[in-house]
Design goal:
Elements lengths: L1 E4 L7 H15 L9 E4 L22 H21 L1
Length: 84
């Protein structure tokens, strides 16, 4: 699973994610069909521990956007790990 955040002010995580996706899909024997990519357009850089409301937005995004992205990230991650 790969994640990018559209309002990331630390680095261009969405741009990096697009490059990673292209390269992995080019070399993957499954042609990337099982690779999971997520972009949270309105979220900043930080990921917080599950279900904690972020107290800052130092590296972009708004607090509520960061909270929603973080909440969805953890749900997706747990679902993904339970499949393995």
């Amino acid at each position: 699973m790969y994640y990018g955040r559209g309002k990331d002010t630390m680095w261009n995580s969405v741009g990096a994610l697009k490059i990673i996706k292209k390269r992995l899909c080019d070399i993957s024997p499954i042609n990337g069909s099982e690779l999971k990519f997520h972009i949270y357009d309105e979220a900043g850089h930080n990921f917080y521990t599950p279900f904690i409301f972020p107290v800052d937005n130092t590296y972009g995004g708004k607090r509520l956007s960061n909270f929603k992205a973080n909440e969805q990230f953890w749900k997706d991650l747990v679902r993904f790990l339970n499949k393995k």
